[in-house]
């Protein structure tokens, strides 16, 4: 992959080919679990340019025909650190989903967290001189965006046009076929570490799959957990995963900011394991069945039997009060939420018209978390479950599967991105585009 623009367009073509064939795999690569959904599309995907801004604006109905989930191995902080173990875990999840679906899949669309995401807001414009806005004008305005120096070893994963302005009118969703003198565009660009991307590409290839799309877990979780009004008026989605906590902010149905905190539910489990002197598997069971972050007067009297199989009767019959367990869990959860608050403040979240916060992901199921988050973040907080999609098994409808459901929506109803437009190279003499394209070639 030597050129970002061409490689992303190649993945778009592969996605369209997979949807035309009828089936595609959705792969959510997490720290605690790896889940796979097999989607069947009802007929060829119709990418009609009349339905939106770019070439990917068409809609396609689909249903889930297969699902598979396995414990994640070889993934830490949402990033691959043991290639062989991750490959075996991916193969296990994909084979489960293929067996349930009764078909073989060759193309996969993947989302993952981690990789140190970083957001940028860009703007560009083009002079029209009273002409009708065409698709080429939009492409030229996007190409005129002055891309910042994102640093060595980083790649762009998303580049969404989030707002168009024509002369004095702003907030346009589709400026085509309108007349004006100056077209401006605001674009949100999300970059991630290139080494993590290359490791992921290599791992998918080793699993005999073709990569047909790549997305940030924070972005797709927001699309699944936020309702339409929240995406329109402004809301933040906090995806509490196993190894990292993703954060995304939406307004006008577009993501305008994303970040990640390198802490998650596995860190709470680790604290319980160390605090009580039990294995991680026992700590996870205790957290799942008895955990919480808000203590009451009854918790001092509620005793939890730790259990064990060391052979030492006294050690294996230990008990601990639920208040002690909460005393272990709460500081770590508070630390994660404080880190999220710092990132929300840095993004200027308080300036949005609506400031709702939605918690999702497996870690959001800790009892009392929404109340604690409301006190720390100082906003309206609710727990979010992913939208229901056709054919989704009951076992995969919880908050832990927000990434998988959001990635399915991302596959079937993609939003426009910078590389969905044909760059007008033959009419483009500006120094900005040449510098931008040279920078992309050098950094990919």
TrEMBL record:
This is Cell division protein FtsA. Its main location: membrane. Self-interacts. Interacts with FtsZ. GO terms for cellular component: cell division site; cytoplasmic side of plasma membrane. Keywords: Cell cycle, Cell division, Cell membrane, Membrane. Pfam families: FtsA, SHS2_FTSA. HAMAP family: FtsA (MF_02033). Residues 24-225 form the SHS2 domain. It is a peripheral membrane protein. It is found in: Cell membrane. GO terms for biological process: FtsZ-dependent cytokinesis. It comes from the Bacteria. It comes from Actibacterium pelagium. Belongs to the FtsA/MreB family. Cell division protein that is involved in the assembly of the Z ring. May serve as a membrane anchor for the Z ring. Signal peptide: none annotated.
């Amino acid at each position: 992959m030597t050129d970002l623009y061409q490689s992303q367009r190649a993945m778009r073509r592969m996605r369209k080919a997979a949807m035309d064939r009828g089936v595609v795999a959705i792969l959510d690569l997490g720290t605690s679990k790896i889940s796979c959904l097999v989607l069947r599309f009802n007929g060829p995907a119709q990418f009609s340019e009349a339905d939106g801004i770019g070439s990917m604006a068409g809609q396609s109905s689909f249903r889930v025909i297969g699902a598979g989930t396995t414990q994640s191995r070889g993934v830490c902080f949402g990033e691959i650190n043991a290639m062989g173990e991750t490959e075996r875990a991916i193969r296990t999840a994909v084979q489960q989903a293929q067996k349930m679906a009764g078909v073989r899949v060759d193309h996969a669309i993947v989302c993952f967290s981690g990789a140190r995401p970083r957001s940028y807001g860009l703007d560009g414009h083009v002079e029209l001189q009273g002409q009708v806005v065409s698709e080429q004008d939009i492409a030229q305005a996007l190409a005129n965006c002055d891309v910042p120096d994102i640093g060595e070893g980083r790649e762009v994963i998303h580049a969404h046009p989030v707002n168009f302005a024509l002369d004095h009118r702003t907030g346009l969703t589709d400026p085509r076929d309108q007349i004006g003198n100056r077209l401006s565009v605001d674009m949100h660009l999300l970059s991630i570490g290139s080494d993590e991307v290359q490791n992921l590409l290599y791992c998918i290839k080793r699993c005999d799959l073709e990569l047909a799309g790549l997305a940030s877990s924070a972005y797709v979780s927001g699309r699944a957990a936020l309702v339409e009004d929240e995406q329109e008026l402004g809301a933040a989605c906090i995806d509490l995963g196993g190894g990292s906590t993703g954060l995304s902010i939406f307004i006008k149905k577009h993501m305008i900011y994303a970040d990640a905190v390198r802490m998650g539910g596995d860190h709470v489990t680790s604290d319980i394991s160390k605090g009580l002197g039990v294995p991680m598997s026992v700590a996870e069971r205790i957290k799942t069945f008895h955990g919480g972050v808000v203590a009451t007067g009854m918790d001092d009297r509620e005793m939890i039997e730790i259990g064990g199989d060391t052979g030492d009767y006294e050690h294996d019959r230990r008990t601990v009060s639920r208040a002690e367990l909460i005393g272990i869990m709460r500081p770590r959860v508070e630390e994660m939420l404080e880190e999220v608050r710092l990132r929300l403040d840095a993004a200027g979240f308080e300036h949005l018209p609506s400031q709702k916060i939605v918690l999702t992901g497996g870690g959001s199921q800790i009892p009392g978390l929404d109340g604690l988050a409301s006190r720390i973040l100082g906003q309206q907080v609710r727990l979010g479950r992913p939208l229901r999609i056709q054919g989704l098994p009951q076992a995969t409808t919880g908050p832990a599967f927000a990434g998988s459901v959001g990635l399915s929506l991302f596959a079937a109803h993609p939003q426009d991105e910078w590389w969905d437009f044909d760059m007008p190279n033959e009419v483009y003499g500006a120094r900005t585009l040449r510098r931008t394209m040279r920078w992309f070639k050098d950094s990919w």
